[in-house]
């Protein structure tokens, strides 16, 4: 076992009061020495798959280097512990990919691993990549650990849709970092479902460098039992008329702890840009802990930005509505919890994966 104690990951770009204890997260755990991880890729006819990092262009290498430099020292140290190769999914044809590329990851308890991906859309192309992360629960008394690093590069007038679904067992911890760049007219969309694991850290940053570039991120989660979920989302608007929209919906129950940091950063020169971030959190337990920090940074006058968080329990009027129709409080909680996850899961263009989500949380999303 290798002990790690990182005091600064998921750091917010603009620090707030230290007493709030939300500027950063800490990771203290033991990494198993065994590295057992299975990955399968389907529908590769819709893209060029490569593991040779020499295939990156100079501009792509510069962007990847910048994402590494932008990470905190602790995050870089974490990734450096693993020697996994980078799997690159590249859309090269001047057409829209008919089917998404599907990447399935499965890890075993008591193991540690690293997953490194790069999704690159050449000019005027469209591609969807769906990645799901699962683990096999065994009688092993040791916990598992998984580190993920994903690079997205959307070149002029291209579109990338990345779907990430985390269905790990409760004996696994995961650190998931996604770094994206959108050039002129490019669109990047991320759909993320987080339902499993014991401790999950999500760090997502998109740089909108191009004119009329667009970033949308939709996240759904259910933090339950003693789970800890720590999220840090950042969108940097540089290009004029760029647009950001970040939506986070979820449920915190039992003795779970959830932290959300969301930042839209309007840089000088991003004239005519817009940004919106909205968070909806349903608390189902008096022992659940929720921390939310939506932030807008602005160095440009000609822009429009909104943000907000809606956090609370089931209201008396809502409960009365359900009870008047013969639905008790527990059933009402289940219905509302399902609705938050379903609203995001419906955006996944993969019925089989929707069934996996349904089976994992014990609901039917098509009801």
General description of the model:
- With 367 residues, the protein is of the alpha/beta class.
- Helices cover 16% and strands 49% of the residues.
- It contains five helices and 20 strands.
- Strands 3-6-8-10-12-14-16-18-20 form a nine-stranded mixed β-sheet, with helices on one face.
- The longest helix has 17 residues, at 329-345.
- It is globular and about 60 Å long.
- The chain starts with a strand and ends in a 6-residue tail after the last helix.
What percentage of residues falls in helices of 4 or more residues?
10-25%
The class by helix and strand makeup works out as alpha/beta
Shape: globular
Major sheet characteristics: 9 strands, mixed
| Number of continuous helical runs | 5
Our measurement of the CA-to-CA distance between the termini, rounded to an integer number of angstroms, reads: 45 Å
SS strand fraction: over 45%
H/E topology pattern: EEEEHHEEEEEEEEEEEEEEEEHHH
Mean pLDDT: 87
Secondary structure tally: strands: 20
Spans of at least 5 consecutive residues with low confidence: none
The neighbouring-strand order within the major sheet is 3-6-8-10-12-14-16-18-20
Radius of gyration: 20 Å
């Amino acid at each position: 076992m290798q002990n790690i104690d990182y005091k600064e990951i998921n750091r917010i770009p603009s620090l707030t009061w230290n007493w709030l204890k939300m500027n950063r997260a800490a990771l203290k755990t033991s990494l198993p020495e065994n590295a057992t991880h299975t990955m399968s890729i389907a529908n590769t006819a819709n893209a060029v798959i490569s593991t040779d990092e020499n295939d990156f262009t100079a501009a792509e290498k510069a962007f990847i280097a910048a994402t590494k430099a932008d990470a905190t020292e602790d995050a870089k140290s974490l990734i450096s512990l693993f020697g996994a190769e980078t799997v690159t999914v590249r859309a090269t044809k001047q057409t829209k990919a008919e089917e998404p590329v599907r990447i399935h990851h499965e890890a075993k308890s008591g193991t540690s691993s690293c997953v490194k991906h790069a999704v690159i859309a050449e000019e005027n192309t469209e591609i969807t990549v769906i990645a799901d992360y699962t683990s096999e629960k065994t009688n092993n008394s040791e916990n598992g650990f998984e580190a993920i690093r994903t690079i997205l590069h959307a070149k002029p007038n291209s579109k990338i849709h990345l779907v990430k679904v985390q269905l790990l067992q409760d004996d696994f911890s995961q650190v998931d970092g996604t770094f994206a760049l959108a050039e002129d007219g490019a669109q990047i969309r991320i759909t993320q479902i987080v339902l499993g694991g014991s401790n999950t850290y999500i760090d997502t940053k998109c740089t909108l460098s191009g004119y009329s570039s667009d970033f949308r991120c939709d996240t759904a989660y259910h933090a339950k039992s003693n789970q800890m979920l720590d999220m840090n989302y950042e969108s940097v608007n540089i290009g004029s008329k760029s647009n950001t929209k970040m939506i986070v919906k979820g449920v915190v129950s039992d003795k779970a702890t959830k932290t959300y940091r969301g930042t839209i950063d309007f840089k000088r020169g991003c004239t005519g840009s817009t940004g919106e971030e909205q968070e909806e959190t349903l608390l189902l337990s008096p022992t659940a802990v929720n921390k939310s920090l939506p932030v807008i940074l602005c160095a440009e006058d000609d822009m429009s930005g909104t943000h907000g968080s809606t956090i609370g329990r089931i209201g008396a009027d809502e409960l009365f509505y359900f009870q008047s129709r013969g639905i008790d409080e527990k059933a009402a909680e289940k219905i509302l919890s399902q609705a938050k996850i379903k609203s995001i899961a419906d955006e996944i263009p993969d019925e089989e994966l929707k069934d996996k989500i349904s089976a994992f949380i014990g609901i039917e999303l098509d009801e």
